[in-house]
UniProtKB/TrEMBL annotation:
Listed transmembrane segments: none
Domain of life assignment: Eukaryota
InterPro entries xref list: HAD-like_sf, HAD-SF_hydro_IIIA, HAD_sf, P-loop_NTPase, PNK3P, Polynucleotide_phosphatase
GO molecular function: ATP-dependent polydeoxyribonucleotide 5'-hydroxyl-kinase activity; double-stranded DNA binding; polynucleotide 3'-phosphatase activity
Region annotation Disordered: where it falls in the sequence: 1-47
Pfam families for the chain: AAA_33 (PF13671), PNK3P (PF08645)
SUPFAM superfamilies xref list: HAD-like, P-loop containing nucleoside triphosphate hydrolases
Protein name, entry field: PNK3P-domain-containing protein
BP-aspect Gene Ontology terms: DNA repair
Family matches, as Gene3D superfamilies: HAD superfamily/HAD-like, P-loop containing nucleotide triphosphate hydrolases
Chain intervals with Basic and acidic residues compositional bias: 17-35
Length: 440
């Protein structure tokens, strides 16, 4: 990577602007294009505007939640200079009151930004802007989209891609969806991005006073070097930071899959039919555990997501047992009152009932939920049915009414299933990312 790109030298200026001047935001005034500027800032002109340099392209994703546009005609090259937008390239508009019917406008974060972006482009980098936008409704999105061409017009010699995540999905940082789209676009031109030669600059870095650590987390997920705007543009020293929220590295290692370990997970077929009741948050691997251990033993799978009501689940269990088959009730079964329906049925049918408690926190379960909905590798997602995101209130309501299962309820035994990630190295890499969005 060019040393001048990562550690830019001070820009000579005949007016000798001081550091204080450099810190002052400046309203953009594109050089030699006063007519175009007047169109956007005053709304009055008799001149015909020049053709815009920035064009919005087809939105990305199944739900079209990732806006995508390009300034000029950016080329795919192996090294990428990626930037957040608000608070990094331009001043953030958060907390600033918008005047009704006012034309779109923006301010550079620092006056040196346009010159620096031109230098980066001249050094052979592909410039990419990746931004989260909290835009509620189609009107807000359309109003925001009017501002971006202003930025492009102020950079008439700087081609760049822009990706904007507008929903809480796999595109929203720290989720790496916008990076995956960039990789696909470049791959279509036979270009593989060199991550070691690329970098990302963002202001949500987990420092004291930062509203989040989202940008730094995104860079870690993507596995490229990270800088704050102060470090990159102003050459200031790195500040201490702390990244809040759940990360898989916080989990204990080397836990046994099931405890106690003294008896087999599935008894011999000569033991006769039984009922197995799963208990635990959504997304803690209950269905995968069934497939691994009980499906091959011909246990009937009973699940309320499929059957819709508890009454139908209880009926399915009764039919399986009367047919001489064992079954697994793969629901959350959060409290004693819910579990009692199956315990009473097992007593009535004179068959044993065991409980498998899937141990894990709400944060772990929510992380797994995000992973399987948004961050599975393509090789896995193409083979498995699409898993939609389970709503967050399903996790909070489980936690609020959860009662730990006890053998005294009528179970022959209660066994604990610890979370252990099972998958390929690529699956583990994807799972082992920062995935929670804005603390949730």
């Amino acid at each position: 990577m060019s040393s001048s790109a990562l550690s830019p030298k001070a820009t000579p200026n005949p007016r000798k602007r001081t550091a204080e001047h450099l810190d002052a935001p400046e309203v953009t005034k594109p050089a030699k294009e006063p007519k175009l500027a007047s169109i956007f800032t005053k709304g009055k002109t008799t001149e015909s505007p020049k053709a815009p340099t920035f064009q919005w392209l087809e939105p990305l994703g199944r739900a079209k939640t990732c806006l995508h546009g390009a300034n000029l005609s950016p080329k795919a090259v192996y090294k990428v200079a990626a930037f957040d937008l608000d608070g990094c390239l331009i001043e953030s508009s958060i907390g600033k009151k918008k005047v009704k019917d006012a034309p779109p406008t923006f301010q550079w974060w620092r006056a040196i930004i346009p010159k620096k972006l031109k230098e980066i482009h001249d050094e052979g980098y592909a410039i990419v802007v990746v931004t989260n936008q909290a835009l509620r409704g189609a009107t807000a999105i359309q109003e925001w989209k009017k501002k971006v061409p202003l930025i492009g017009a102020a950079l008439p010699e700087v081609p760049f891609h822009l990706f904007a995540a507008t929903a809480r999905d796999g595109y929203r940082k720290p989720m790496p969806g916008m990076w995956y789209e960039l990789e696909r676009i470049f791959a279509a031109e036979d270009v593989v991005i060199d991550k070691s030669a690329s970098f990302f600059v963002g202001d949500a870095a987990g420092r004291q006073g930062d509203f989040a650590g989202t940008d730094r987390k995104w860079a870690q997920n993507v596995d490229i070097p990270f800088f704050t705007p102060e470090e990159y543009f102003l050459k200031l020293k790195a500040a201490p930071y702390t990244l809040q929220g759940f990360h898989p590295s916080s989990l204990p290692a080397d836990l046994p899959r099931v405890t106690p370990t003294s008896s087999p997970i599935v008894p011999s077929s000569s033991s006769g039919p039984e009922v197995v009741l799963f208990v635990g948050f959504p997304a803690l691997g209950k269905t995968s555990f069934y497939r691994t251990h009980f499906y091959t033993a011909n246990y009937v799978h009973v699940n309320q997501d499929t059957l819709r009501t508890r009454e139908k689940c209880v009926k399915a269990v009764e039919e399986a047992i009367k047919d001489g088959k064992s079954c697994v009730v793969d629901n959350t079964n959060r409290d004693a009152a819910t579990r009692k329906h199956y315990i009473d049925l097992a007593k009535k049918l004179d068959v044993p009932i065991r409980c498998f408690l899937f141990h894990g926190t709400l944060e772990l379960a929510w992380h797994n939920n995000l992973y399987r909905a948004f961050n599975l590798p393509d090789s896995v997602a193409s083979k498995a049915p699409k898993r939609d995101l389970v709503p967050y209130n399903a996790f909070t309501s489980f936690k609020a009414s959860y009662e730990e299962p006890k053998a005294a309820e009528g179970f022959r035994e209660v066994r604990r299933v610890n979370w252990v990630f099972e998958g390929t190295e690529e699956e583990r890499r994807r799972w082992n990312m920062w995935l929670q969005i804005d603390g949730k």
